[in-house]
Amino acid sequence: MWLLLPLALGLVVGSARRWDAPALKLSRAAGVVSLLVLLFLMGVRTGADLEVRVGLARVGVRAVAVALGATSASIVAGAWYARCWLEVES
Amino acid sequence: MTLLVVISVTAGMLAGRYLVDPAWLAPVEGWITMALVLLLATVGFELGSDRRAFIKAWQNRKRLLTLPWVVAAASLAGAGAAGFLARFSLLEALAAGAGFGWYSLSGVLVGREFGAEAGAVAFLANLMRELSVLMLAPYLARRAGGGGLVGAAGATAMDSTLPSIVKAAGGQVAVAAFVSGAALSVLAPITIWLLAAMR
């Protein structure tokens, strides 16, 4: 839950004043770079994890089935609910 | 952007598989946290600088709180159906689905309550869920909209996938993603424990 802190800090700074275009662009660029670094590091962690390597062969089919079932049902439900009840569509 | 995301994850996995010694993983955890902190700060900044999105979300707050319940019910239904088709124990499949994308927690909790194999399934299934959102966010946002993307992200919508969701679907989805992710993060351990008690 402590990860709420940087989010809250960014929120406070972002809403403190009306920021000009270069500041917003810089923030977006920093976001993209840190996202790519984060994904690379998560890939490293996954690739190096011995449990994942062994588990992939042993329980892969069941994991894929559960992931597909849960994720696809959630996408459909989330999309349906948002379309009917929320105004968050882009 | 999607191509860059796929390249980053694939390059990381290959590096982890062939170049990185598992003993080197301890600092990687710290770097992941630092990258996540920077990402969340930039997301907060973008969100804070867009006041219209916040006002709109506040006006929708009651409906926003229903979204995580809808996503949780759908996750469990989908996992149960998939478990049935894959001839996997229904309760174990439901418990794996009840991680709602939170692979570290669900792997440990399901493993402790249902055994090592079910724990491995929960870990991998939820890891795939999170990675699929990270890699396919722009595609999912185009095809299923912000709501579908938030649903796919499950509990991770409040932290690790929040930046991808915002980048793919826009700042107006950020509050819905955060509320849904936070509620599902609370629901995940409770649901797994309830399912374990039903055995």
Overview of this protein structure:
Chain A contains three helices and no strands. Chain A has 90 residues and is mainly α. The longest helix of chain A has 36 residues, at 50-85. Chain B is mainly alpha-helical. Chain B has helices at residues 2-18, 25-48, 51-59, 61-85, 90-97, 103-114, 116-153, 162-169, 174-197. The longest helix of chain B has 38 residues, at 116-153. The radius of gyration of chain B is 17 Å and the shape is globular. The model of chain B has no long low-confidence stretch (mean pLDDT 85). The interface between A and B is large, with 74 and 106 residues.
Give the tags.
heterodimer, A: 90 residues, mainly alpha, 3 helices, 86% helix, B: 199 residues
**Rg value of chain A:** 19 Å
**Largest beta sheet of chain A, briefly?**
none
Q: What is the β-strand count of chain B?
A: 0
Which stretches of chain B of 5+ consecutive residues score pLDDT under 50? none
Total helical elements of chain A: 3
Mean pLDDT level of chain B: 85
Number of helices of chain B: 9
Beta strand count of chain A: 0
Instruction: Using the alpha-carbon principal axes, give the shape of chain B.
Output: globular
Please indicate the percent range of residues of chain B in DSSP E strands (runs of 2 or more): under 5%
Radius of gyration of chain B: 17 Å
Mean pLDDT value of chain A: 81
Distance between the termini of chain B: 45 Å
Question: Approximately how much helix is present in the residues of chain B?
Answer: over 70%
